[in-house]
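Researcher: We plan to redesign the surface later, but first we want a full-length starting point. C-alpha cells attached.
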C-alpha cells in the first residue's frame, strides 16, 4: 500500500481548513488502511518558527501512523492554458504520496501549462487541483472528481460552488475555468478563459 498525503495550507502560522483535512484523513484511514484512527492532526502538527510568517505547504505523509511532517514554502503556479487528456484507468480516489501516473499524464500537456483529465467521458481534475467552471452566474464543479479535495468540500458546504455532470462537449457552454485546492480558494485562483482549453 502506498503512503497517503495531506497537504495543508499554513498561512502566517495558522493551519487552514483543518475540519476538512481531519475528515478526509479519518475517512482514508478507515477505507484505505482499514483502521479506525485516533489521531488528531492539529494536535500532532508543530509549526516551526520559520513557517510562522508567509504561506507554506504542510505535508503530512502517513500510512497506519504519521510518517513525516514537513513545511515547504509555497509558490503559486501560473496556469494560463489546459489540455484535455483521456485516461480511463487512472485511480486517484485517495491522495497518494506516489504521483507517478499523474506525472506521466502531465508530460502529455504539449504547449499547455497543465491538463484536464477526462475519464469515462467525464471531466475530472487537473494534475494538482479540482476544477470549477463559471457559467456567468455561478461556479460549478464536476461530480466526477478523481479526488474529493478539501477546498472543494469546503466550498460545496458553503454553497459557493455546485456539483453537476460535465463532459468535454459541455465545456464551450462556460465562460471561465478555475483550479482549486488546499492552497487555492475562489478568491486566490486566477480564472482561465475557456478559449485557452485545448482539445
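Model: Full-length starting sequence:
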Amino acid at each position: 500500500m502506498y503512503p497517503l498525503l495531506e497537504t495543508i495550507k499554513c498561512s502566517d502560522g495558522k493551519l487552514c481548513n483543518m475540519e476538512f483535512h481531519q475528515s478526509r484523513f479519518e475517512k482514508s484511514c478507515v477505507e484505505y488502511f482499514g483502521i479506525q484512527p485516533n489521531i488528531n492532526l492539529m494536535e500532532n502538527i508543530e509549526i516551526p518558527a520559520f513557517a510562522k510568517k508567509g504561506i507554506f505547504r504542510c505535508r503530512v505523509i502517513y500510512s497506519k501512523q504519521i510518517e513525516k511532517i514537513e513545511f515547504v514554502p509555497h509558490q503559486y503556479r501560473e496556469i494560463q492554458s489546459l489540455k484535455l487528456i483521456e485516461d480511463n484507468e487512472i485511480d486517484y480516489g485517495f491522495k497518494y504520496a506516489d504521483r507517478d501516473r499523474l506525472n506521466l499524464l502531465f508530460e502529455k500537456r504539449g504547449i499547455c501549462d497543465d491538463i484536464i483529465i477526462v475519464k469515462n467521458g467525464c471531466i475530472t481534475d487537473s494534475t494538482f487541483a479540482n476544477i470549477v467552471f463559471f457559467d456567468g452566474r455561478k461556479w460549478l464543479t464536476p461530480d466526477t472528481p478523481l479526488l474529493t479535495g478539501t477546498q472543494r468540500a469546503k466550498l460545496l458546504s458553503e454553497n459557493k460552488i455546485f456539483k453537476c455532470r460535465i463532459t468535454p462537449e459541455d465545456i464551450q457552454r462556460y465562460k471561465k475555468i478555475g483550479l482549486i485546492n488546499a492552497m487555492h480558494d475562489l478568491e486566490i485562483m486566477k480564472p482561465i478563459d475557456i478559449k485557452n482549453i485545448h482539445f
